[in-house]
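Would you be willing to look carefully at the protein I have copied below?

:::
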Amino acid sequence: MISIVLLLLVSNLLILLATQLVNEKNADLLLAGYNTMSKKEKEKFNLKEYLIFFKNFFLKLVLYSSLITIISSLFFEEFYVVIIYSTCILLPLPFFIIKSNKNFKK
C-alpha cells in the first residue's frame, strides 16, 4: 500500500514541478494555446494574471489530492485509492478549462 501512495505522491510532485517551471519567458513553448496565438492576440492576453491562476490552481490540486490520497489510503484498498486519486485529479480540470476560457479568453 505504501508503494502506491508513494507513487501517487511522486506524480503529484511532478505536476507541481511542471507547473512551477512555466513562466513568462518560456510560455511560448510550454503553454498550449498561448503558443499558437498571433502576436496581436498575445499582446491582448494577460499572461501574468493567467500564470498566477495556473500555478495557484495546480498547487491546490496537488495539495488536496495528496491529502485525500493519504487519508483514503488509511481506509481503502490500493485499487480504490487509485480511483479516488484519479477522481481528485480529473474532476477539477473542467472547472480549470471553463474558468480559463471565461477569464482569459483570446
